[in-house]
Amino acid sequence: MKPVYIAGAGMTKFGRSEWSLIRLASEASRSALHHANLGKIPVDGVVVANMGAARINKQTALGSALVDQLALYPAMAEAVENGPASGASAFKVGCQAIASGMADVVLVTGVERMRVVNGLEGTDFVASLSHPEAEYIYGVTLPSLAGMLARLVMSRHGVERKHLAMVAIKNHENATKNPYAHIQQTVTMEGILTLPEAAVNNPPIAEPLHMFDCCPVSDGSAAVVLVSEGIAAKLDAPKVRIAGIGQATDTHAVHEREDPTDLKAVRLASERAFAMAGLKPGDINVAELHDAFTILEIAESEAAGFFPRGEGHKALERGETKLDGKLPINPSGGLKAKGHPVGATGVAQLVELAWQLRGEAAARQVKDAKAGYACNFGGFGNNVVATVLQREAK
Amino acid sequence: MSHEVTGAKCTSCGTTNYPKRAVCSNCKNETFESVAIGGVGKVLTYTDVYALAIDYETRYLRLAIVELDDGLRVTGHLLDDEPKLGKRVKTTIGVVRNPGDKPLYGFQFVPT
User: A63-83: buried (b, 16+ CB within 10 Å) or exposed (e) per residue?
Assistant: First the structure.
């Protein structure tokens, strides 16, 4: 396999947007292309990540639409739909095109515009990824699957609601340092858990999970420019190499998994990504995890291999995952506070890592970050893509 | 009219696949017989969910995953005002969703 590099990264601010779906995608793409500063080097391929446009925005064939906006014809183009893991899946497809020698420059853009429908319809759109007969007909939604996971993990590993709140507090704090984040507001333990008013501020969504355990519904787009070794050598920029990608699947219905608290697909995808990179979890300096629900950040931090099983909440409690801790997790604010435009999320995680590894993350910069890890958690853990990026000496 | 929830019992290794699938997850065999599933078991986990999808008939539900005594696990509605992890329940079949044209039947768990 030929080496692949990220030459540029960009995104729109996440949140509620008046822009059309394609306008969002094209703004993020232009920002990534300007960042890459390719000059006259042509773009060979475009991969768009999206989950809901066909249903929510009544638009299909997004690869062709984006090529047209950016006048990149006759570049190859397609869209990838892989539920909430669409972003990292599209990134993988882009990497494969370069690693195989089929392309030298590929633009990968994730986009979602979901605030055009009301929250209940948005919930239904995402719930449609659950098993139609064994889950969906019962009213299963993503928050409910996360709620059932949280209750089980809490009963087995001594995780308490205060630990879930610590994830929210940390990620909201990080997001105030990220101008692209949807929510730019800190929260406190008192305000969301311990004061009587917390019952009003932070109502239950899927017990034991409350509102501040759940990510917001966001519009937004994120993009990266992938290049071959030959092109990377011509660019005067820090070199961020895709060191490893791993992907793994699991049963569609959550109840079928031998141990529903074991995020097996996260574990396997991460093992594969680390093996390909020739690195260990201990080599990672910064991680972006898929904290659509606070419990997931804790569970993924264990399944990815950063902490022993059942001890993720203890590392969190010790402050190890804070911006100035041993392993900063979600310096961007995570899905929890940066926002979660579903198809854009996996790409946005890699945008943050690319900026961190290039030393361009401003107020939330992790000192001396040389290796980064991202977990894009698709389905409810039944399709996971893990990515390891590494900064190379110039 | 009686309603039941069925799984796919593999004709080769005897594993009941629920939900049904085209290839047995245990032995990769491709032929099954349809068998009624359900019985007595314990609550593995549950949630009270207030964020239901649009068009659902209620705004609140108690959902659970139950581990049956035969080892099979199933998802459904928990009809119990005093839910607890590990509590003994049995499966009943009831209307779990009624979108208007045709009611959908599925598992509703009640204390034993």
Answer: bebbbeebebeebbbebbbbb
CATH 2.40.50.840, domain B38-111, yes or no: yes
pTM given for the model: 0.97
User: Considering just the CA atoms, what is the radius of gyration of chain A in Å?
Assistant: 19
A135 and B CB contact within 8 Å: yes
> For position A230, which CATH number holds?
3.40.47.10
Checking phi first, is residue A158 left (phi over 0); if not, alpha (psi -120 to 50) or beta?
Answer: left
| Tokens encoding A98 | 């370069």
From the CA of A17, how many Å to the nearest CA of chain B? 22
**Into how many domains does chain A fold?**
1
ipTM of the complex: 0.96
A371 falls within a domain? no
Residue A291 forms part of a structural domain: no
B53 and A147: CB-CB below 8 Å?
no
**In angstroms, what CA-CA distances link A376 with A66, A228, A265?**
23, 24, 11
pLDDT at A176: 98
Structural domain boundaries in chain B: 6-35, 38-111
CB-CB under 8 Å, B63 with A143? no
Asked if residues A157 and A310 have their Cβ atoms less than 8 Å apart, the reply is yes
Per-residue pLDDT averaged across A328-334, rounded? 98
